[in-house]
Design a protein that fits this description.
heterodimer, A: alpha+beta, 2 domains, 19 helices, 11% strand, B: alpha/beta, Rossmann fold, Alpha-Beta Plaits, 27% strand
């Protein structure tokens, strides 16, 4: 009960500073702006053309947030399959209107090298049916749609080199994500007609932009505001009245820390829930995994706040706590960036098959040292990447998530969390130790 | 078992010896005043007893337990000198917060907090933010938070600082009432008049050492000096007293009569009555606590390490010095 009182006290302090209201107000402003976005489904032909020419697969593979995977995908991507099949006709079945929720029957035309090849296919089309099905397999496996029956289309006067196929396209709950939509602002008043990309991709980019920019502002403001909490508590006359109470010093400090985190958690929850809600209501796509960003971004802040807490206990200075925390944040970013630069450079060198002696990024003593430092520091860059990955994969793939397609297998997320958690524990442990031993 | 005891308590802050072997004992139900100049070590002593300051040597006990024990702190109230309450609280919410930290149950807090605020005269402002309180109101709030959980021992550091005279009297009444209930009060104050009014015993700390300690009445008593007052218009026959071997000097409308160790006041009274004089005032002279304090601590620049004093010996020496001054003055008059 007494420790709950400390949490309540921290929250009261945060509310009194009015900054929470400002942050919530800013979040509300952004959420309100996002709520004005509209998404109008484009005609089915546009989406199927992009499905046929491989653009959709390209979106999935080449726009993954992980840079190395993206680079690999661009190098290894099968050639765009445009030209293999031409879309001849699109019609909904059962008379439903044109929409991402409808089922379709497509008529596709494929041109062969000569009349004999075309005739051979007409006589025995099973292999071609399989090949046609495989054309859509990548996206079908992710649950964006189902391919129903494939048959030869009845053609009154077939052309000698062409074979027409009839394919049943069955929509699923994921179809909307790959459907091309035209976005607009201010409830349709400002159409953005030049943008024709899948809805899931649009939403992931919007969410990523808003949450990335918003998280930078929120973290910076959070660092500044919470940096006052511990020094205020340690002021002469205030700390005396707390230390005389029958509570352990280490727990007093720990719960004061948790109180600061609670303030940030509430702000994150408001902003992320708001974005999730408005994008879901406006688009019909509910990216529930995005809600994981609430604890992830709070955890990100917990790393910085642990640095701030230790600094505050050692110096009792708010300004010093702010500067040291921002400095630490910058250092974590630089180390992570440096490691990524060397990783990317090494991959390029490998791809170009450079001689060993010319591989400056691969065989580099500074890289070894930097990676050693990176192993010990909290992985804020990993948390950033995880945020982007979650946003992208959830808006694009929904509940299917397909981690083996979206999340790189080279990254050990548990190690990232573990090292970051250990860092927090060490910072807090040192702060509690010092606080417990110091005279006030 | 005393309420608090220390034995040869020592504390250093680096090279500074804040406490140099302080030994004291405060009985339960007593009001004890700790006096001393700024930097004498008063606050350090209190903080050691409360467990706020560590790294000390010697022995310190509070309610029979080692000083600083967490479970004992439940029974202790404290108002520090430079207290600083979080101004985002209201009077009520602050007491509620501290009450929770002390483990006071919710139902008891709900009844006790308004009661305490009523006692200190803040009931009407209990829902106002503390940043809107005056200094005196914050001081009274501090008293309330120290008494909220009905502690057995209360440490008050300058409790009447910033409080108007009416408020100070009210606080004295509260402390007297608490004492009657068996509470032990340990008081620091520079307002020696206040200390003299309510404390049972005082100790004077100087440069980390206890240089004088005892009952106020005993400490301030000046042996061998009687203050005598007569009816209006009447004059003390100093010459006649001198012939009896008593020295007297006028002090305003009264007279101070100096007695040697073997003398009593009875012959003086007999003489006055024989002369038909009416005695209106007859009391043994006392020092004020302030005079005692100033005499004890003296000029801090001139004084170096001062040895422990003996109260009664000092009082006799003061009277002897006064008599010698009188005799010297008379000889000078005669020579003129």
């Amino acid at each position: 009960m007494k420790y709950f009182a400390i949490l309540k006290d921290s929250l009261r302090e945060a509310l009194d500073s009015k900054v929470l209201y400002v942050l919530l107000g800013l979040s509300l402003l952004i959420v309100s702006f996002v709520a004005t976005l509209g998404f109008r489904p484009m005609p089915a032909e546009r989406t199927f053309e992009k499905l046929l020419d491989g653009t959709m697969v390209h979106y999935m593979e080449a726009n993954k947030p992980d840079r190395n995977e993206k680079r690999k995908a661009r190098n290894d991507l099968p050639q765009l399959r445009g030209g293999l099949y031409q879309l001849k006709k699109v019609e909904t079945v059962d008379g439903k209107p044109d929409s991402p929720d409808a089922n379709y029957r497509l008529v596709l035309n494929k041109m062969y090298m000569n009349e004999d090849a075309a005739a051979k296919v007409r006589r025995n089309p099973d292999a071609e049916f399989h090949a046609l099905h495989q054309h859509f397999a990548d996206l079908e496996q992710l649950g964006f749609f189902r391919i129903g029956a494939i048959r030869l289309a009845p053609v009154a006067d077939p052309k000698p080199f062409d074979v027409e196929y009839q394919l049943d396209f069955l929509s699923t709950s994921g179809t909307r994500r790959i459907w091309l939509h035209e976005p607009s602002l201010f409830f349709g008043l400002v159409p953005l007609s030049e943008i024709d990309v899948p809805l899931g991709f649009q939403l992931s980019q919007i969410a990523d932009l808003v949450l990335s920019m918003g998280s930078w502002v929120a973290v910076l403001l959070g660092v500044i505001i919470t940096s006052f909490f511990i020094p205020n508590m340690l002021q002469k006359g205030t700390i005396d009245l707390l230390l005389v109470k029958p509570i352990r010093r280490s727990l007093l400090l720990f719960f004061k820390y948790i109180g600061g985190l609670t303030f940030i958690f509430l702000n994150n929850a408001f902003a992320i829930l708001g974005i999730w809600l408005v994008l879901g209501l406006r688009s019909g796509i509910w990216a529930n995994w995005v809600l994981l960003l609430i604890p992830i971004m709070t955890f990100f802040f917990a790393i910085l706040y642990a640095v701030s807490t230790l600094t505050a206990v050692l110096t009792r200075s708010t300004v010093t706590a702010i500067l040291v925390t921002i400095g630490a944040w910058f250092m974590f970013f630089l180390v992570g960036l440096g490691v990524r630069i060397f990783e990317t450079g090494a991959l390029i060198e490998e791809a170009l098959q450079k001689p060993e002696a010319e591989r400056r990024f691969t065989n580099n003593a500074f890289r070894t040292s930097l990676e050693a430092v990176h192993r010990c520091l909290p992985r804020t860059s990993d948390l950033n990447d995880l945020t982007h990955l979650l946003v992208f994969s959830d808006f694009m793939t929904g509940g299917y998530l397909a981690p083996e397609r979206v999340l790189t297998g080279e990254r050990n997320w548990w190690e990232s969390f573990g090292v970051s958690m250990a860092f927090i524990a060490i910072m807090l442990g040192l702060a509690c130790w010092r606080f417990a031993r110091k005279d006030y | 078992m005393g309420a608090l005891e220390t034995h040869d308590l020592r504390k250093n802050y680096g090279r500074i010896e804040a406490l140099r072997g302080v030994s004291l004992s405060v009985n339960q139900g007593e009001i004890y005043g700790l006096l001393g100049q700024n930097g004498a070590g008063k606050t350090t002593l209190i903080k050691i007893l409360l467990g706020i300051t560590r790294g000390w040597h010697g022995e310190a006990k509070l309610l029979g337990e080692p000083a600083g024990a967490a479970h004992v702190r439940k029974r202790v109230g404290y108002l520090p000198e430079d207290h600083r309450f979080p101004d985002y609280h209201t009077g009520y919410s602050l007491l509620d917060f501290y009450g929770q930290l002390l483990g006071v149950p919710h139902a008891k807090r709900r009844s006790r907090i308004p009661e305490m605020l009523q006692t200190v005269g803040l009931r009407e402002r209990m829902n106002t933010k503390i940043r809107g309180y005056s200094k005196g109101m914050k001081q009274r709030l501090g008293i309330a938070q120290a008494l909220l959980h009905e502690p057995d021992v209360i440490f008050l550091d300058e409790p009447t600082d910033g409080v108007d005279p009416l408020g100070r009297r009210h606080i004295r009444e509260i402390l007297t009432h608490l004492k009657a209930k068996g509470c032990t009060i340990f008081l620091n104050s520079h307002l020696l008049g206040e200390v003299e009014l309510i404390c049972d015993r005082v100790g004077i700390l100087q440069r980390g050492e206890m240089v004088r300690e005892g009952n106020i009445a005993e400490l301030t008593k000046q042996q061998g000096v009687i203050v005598l007052g007569l009816a209006p218009g009447q004059t003390l026959p100093i010459a006649d007293l001198a012939s009896l071997g008593y020295h007297a000097i006028a002090q305003g409308e009264r007279w101070e009569v100096y007695l040697s160790e073997s003398q009593s006041i009875d012959p003086v009274i007999d003489l006055l009555r024989a002369r038909g004089l009416s005695i209106r005032h007859l009391i043994e002279k006392r020092q004020t606590l302030e005079e005692l304090f100033l005499e004890t601590v003296g000029d801090d620049d001139a004084d170096k390490r001062r040895p422990r004093r003996e109260p009664e010996k000092d009082a006799r020496q003061a009277v002897t010095r006064k008599r010698e001054d009188i005799r010297r003055g008379r000889r000078e008059d005669e020579m003129r």
